[in-house]
Amino acid sequence: MLDLRIERSIDVHATAARVWDVFRNLDDWPRWDPGCAWARSLTPEPWLPGGLVEELRLPRLLGARPMLHRARVEHVDPGRHLEWISVLGGVGGRRAVEIRPLPSGWTRVVVVERARGPLVLAIRALGIPREWARQMDDALRGLKAAAEGHPLPIVPGSTARPPGQDTPPAEPGGPLRTPVDPRAT
pTM here? Predict the structure, then answer.
């Protein structure tokens, strides 16, 4: 009961190299992930083991505040697999992103989120895993659209901003900054 696992996937009509190029560009995360206000690297190269990535997440739950998410990269096979650990909202987590080329020339992107800790009981009781899965689906649809070169979807009720309105609610390191130690998992 103290563990949570959510897996989502999507097939993208683009090469694995194209999907990886879109995914690894942190500056563009807010353009395709409606739950991301901004993202940046805290290390010279974020996509190496030990690399640090920071983003401001915009949860859609009623009354939820934006949350600073800092993750430490644990494993990378460039263009194929990425895994990081983090703490978000007091819950230790691990995310794995798999980018799998398919025989058809398409690419399957699989994201697995794992959370662990006593707060998982409250997360389950509040029904948050369903919303978390919806937000993962929104991000995957945005990644698909960006990799395929389509206009990015605006999901009803999401935090996505239309083109020209890319100003996030807080700049990196701004007033919502709270220290998070990814080693705490």
Answer: 0.78
